[in-house]
Amino acid sequence: MTSEKKTVSETLYEEAEKIIPGGVNSPVRACGAVGATPRFVKSGQGARIYDEDGRGYIDMCGSWGPLIFGHCPPTVVKAVTEAAKLGATFGAPTKAETTLATLINKHYPSMEMIRLVSSGTEAAMSAIRLARGVTGRDKIVKFQGCYHGHADSLLVAAGSGLTTYSVPSSLGVPADLAKLTVTCPYNDPVSLEEIFKLAGREIACVIVEPVAGNMGLVPPEPGFLEAIADLCQKNGALFVCDEVITGFRVGLGGAQALHNLKPDLTVLGKIIGGGLPLAAFGGRRDYMELLSPLGGVYQAGTLSGNPLAVAAGCAAIGRLETENPYGRLRHMASELARGFGERAERHRLPVRVNQLESMATVFFTDRKVTDLASAQTSDLKLYAAWWRGMLEKGVWLPPSQFETFFVSTGLLFSEVEDVLDAADLVFADLAKTR
Ligand SMILES: *Cc1c(COP(=O)(O)O)cnc(C)c1O
Q1: In this predicted model, what pLDDT tens digit does every residue of 270-313 receive, in sequence order?
Q2: I need a labelling partner for 230 at 20 to 30 A (CA). Which of 73, 158, 206, 322 fits?
């Protein structure tokens, strides 16, 4: 028996596995959920990425959200290159940090004061610490299926009911800490009201993805976000909007502008770094003034407000302001969503497509997807087979059913057609083998 020759990616993966756990620096990249091994990426340009074997793909993952202009947008490349010539990091304040904070504040007026950090995890973790510091309360509420980074308090799963304690969803998270996080189904204001009835005076904050992107795309139902804001206000808890994905994605002003919300605290990341590691949290001035060095809530970072990341962020936001690409992005995403739905139906495959602005998910279920429980009715084997088929045809989708794909301005309308043609062929194959 002759074994097939290994691809460059397969060889690189074997080498990586020897020194990096699972061969990856973030678990979903391992492609385990879709029964594959990762393709190692060499470069990207516009909406295309190229692997180490020289194969090209239409990139519908966009590094999980940051790349709204696709790869290597010239304005961002130029800004980063010029910043690098001046020095990578100083550990002292720079002018551009105020410029970026001011830019963010212009579009997110609820963020009266802003602190820059390096990752969404850090920003969400810090916002929660601040909420606890502001209120003097320990409990927090999060929604099942929402992701806010991997801080201990946020890696919890629901207990068997609203009244039972949450349990850690990762080894290494103390059960005593998990107990302080109450989980609630997404799009379920009645359960949230119940939680406030039971524990209202102990709850420091409710944190939510205003459009959920981490159980696949699940938009908020009418009134859901408003109900959260209202319950928080009535119970003296802070309303924390995690706009790490939605910020500058669903529009310049994020979901809070679309829904006319004024969160107490907001968390941003992904797009605001233009592809470099940058995130931010901010909100009401009197709350933010409780942060060190002004107040008693400690928070710090050696590379916070890093000059290269800040330069990239300013360039990306500047370009979003001048180009305002949201109409075109929405148009392409809705063409894709409609096209996927029609083609799946033609081949009698159970598919529901959720789409909002330039984000969408193809769920392999016949149920309407409004929360984690309905998302979990999806046929994961079918998604995995679809993902592998699409990759073979040159379309790079997120390697998990519970993720969102993103459209970038690098994508052409002709490529939308190419993606839909590929989907038609792959759906046909799936229908045959079912
Ligand atoms: C990606 C993400 C985070 C975490 O950001 P990292 O930069 O990966 O730490 C937090 N919240 C949401 C909604 C996200 O999508």
Answers
A1: 999 999 999 999 999 999 999 999 999 999 999 999 999 999 99
A2: 158
CA of 129 to the centre of ligand 1 (A): 17
Q: What is the pLDDT of residues 9-67, one digit of tens each?
A: 999 999 999 999 999 999 999 999 999 999 999 999 999 999 999 999 999 999 999 99
Contact 407, 329 (CB under 8 A): yes
Residues with CB under 6 A from ligand 1: 119-121, 124, 147-149, 209, 213-214, 242, 244-245, 269, 279
Domains observed in the chain? 8-60+325-433 (3.90.1150.10), 74-323 (3.40.640.10)
Q: Percent of the chain at pLDDT above 90? A: 96
Atom from ligand 1 closest to the CA of residue 243:
13
**How far apart are the CA of 148 and the centre of ligand 1, in A?**
5
Q: What's the pLDDT band for 131 if we cut at 50, 70, 90?
A: very high
Q: What is the pTM of this model?
A: 0.97
Phi, psi of 72 (to 5 degrees): 55, 45
| Ligand 1 atom closest to residue 26's alpha carbon, by position in its atom list | 8
Find the catalytic residue in 139, 186, 264, 270.
270
Active site residue 57: no
C-alpha 120 – ligand 1 centre gap (Å): 4
Q: Which atom of ligand 1 is nearest to the CA of 146?
A: 13
Q: pLDDT tens-digit profile of 224-278?
A: 999 999 999 999 999 999 999 999 999 999 999 999 999 999 999 999 999 999 9
242 is catalytic: yes
Q: What is the pLDDT of residue 160?
A: 67
